[in-house]
Amino acid sequence: MTVHIREAVDEDWPRIWPFFRAICAEGETYVYPYEPTEEEGRALWMERPPGLTVVAVDDAGTVLGSAKMGPNRPGPGAHVSTASYMVDPAAAGRGVGRALGEYSLTWAREQGYHGMQFNAVVESNARAVYLWQSIGFQIIGTVPGAYKSRSHGYVGIHVMYQKFD
Fold first, then answer.
1. pLDDT-based confidence at residue 165 (cuts at 50, 70, 90)
2. Contacts of 109 (CB under 8 A, 6+ apart)
3. Is the pTM of this model over 0.90?
4. Strand, helix or coil at 2?
5. What are the structural domains, with CATH classification, of the chain?
6. What was the pLDDT predicted at 106?
7. Is the Cα torsion angle 57, 62, 65, 71 positive or negative in sign?
């Protein structure tokens, strides 16, 4: 399967929303409400400049996943980027998350950021932790019990970082 990544357009939101809603409802990976409204979801996910939201699609144009990226903080913190990723569970294990992660790193470097910081990687999300470490992120700290997982109870949240040269 070939994964193509392109900028998300308004017409993509109805194709992102079903897996966005399902991932939030699962309560295992995001510090978003378990049951956001569609409007809340769109406001959380669809970035405006200087940020960017992208979709990963297959050859048929099916949306497999999405990522959003931009400055981690405004003002004096705006030289460090951040990103978030969601992959449709039906496309899990097919390299979509890795493709989105690598795309966001390339984008951030091209935009002149000094590094990328993930503020809240749930420690029980072992697949994500492994993936981010495999593409160069380090765990720089863990906030114990900061996330209330629906299946694991209170677990830590990792702050992960990759410095750019």
1. confident
2. 164
3. yes
4. coil
5. 4-116 (3.40.630.30)
6. 98
7. positive
